[in-house]
Structures are given as structure tokens and as C-alpha cells.
Design a protein that fits this description.
The chain is α+β, with helices and mostly antiparallel strands. The chain has one domain: 2-Layer Sandwich (Alpha-Beta Plaits), CATH 3.30.70. It contains three helices and four strands, in the order βαββααβ. The chain has a four-stranded antiparallel β-sheet with strand order 2-3-1-4. Helix 1 packs antiparallel against helix 3.
Length: about 100
């Protein structure tokens, strides 16, 4: 079964306190579901139509594991803490 990657990009952070509350809950919620954080922060360089925005890259053993982590009660609690504190996008893709 191929590994999966969860890629989050933050278009805007509207409330740093809400983001901090989310991060405090999201990290443990995801790692307890098999997440391995590979990279997070601002890009070192962007090309073409790239946008300089916070990005998080997480590895899972499968798409199913990543999806289960996202849909878990613990992660839903983290999402509730974030609320409208950030505009972001999450993509889960299967490794080749």
C-alpha cells in the first residue's frame, strides 16, 4: 500500500491565538493516528505561480490512515479550536 502525504497551505492567518490553540491539539491528534511531520513553515523559495505561504507536509502509511486522522474526534476538536482563525487548504495525495 503506498504512503500518503497531507499537504496544508495557509492562505491567511486571521487569528494567531486560534492557530496556536489548533496546533496544540492537532499535533497530538495527528501523531496518535500515525502522522509523521516532515516539514512545516514558510517556503525557502517559491517558483512559477507559487505563493509564499505557510505549508505543512505530513506523511502517513496510507490515504485511509490520513483520512481517518482527519476525521477523528481528536482532530475535529482541533478544527473547532481553529474555527475561522485561518484560511487554508488541505490535500491528501497518494505516493507514487
Amino acid at each position: 500500500m503506498p504512503k500518503a502525504y497531507w499537504i496544508s497551505t495557509y492562505r491567511a492567518v486571521k487569528d494567531a491565538d486560534k492557530l496556536a490553540a489548533y496546533a496544540k491539539l492537532a499535533g497530538p491528534a495527528l501523531t496518535s493516528n500515525g502522522a509523521r511531520f516532515l516539514a512545516r513553515g514558510m517556503p525557502s523559495k517559491v517558483y512559477e505561480l507559487g505563493v509564499m505561504q505557510r505549508t505543512v507536509l505530513i506523511e502517513f502509511d496510507s490515504v485511509e490512515q490520513a483520512t481517518a486522522a482527519h476525521d477523528s474526534p481528536a482532530y475535529k476538536e482541533a478544527l473547532a479550536a481553529l474555527g475561522d482563525g485561518a484560511d487554508r487548504e488541505i490535500r491528501i495525495i497518494e505516493a507514487v
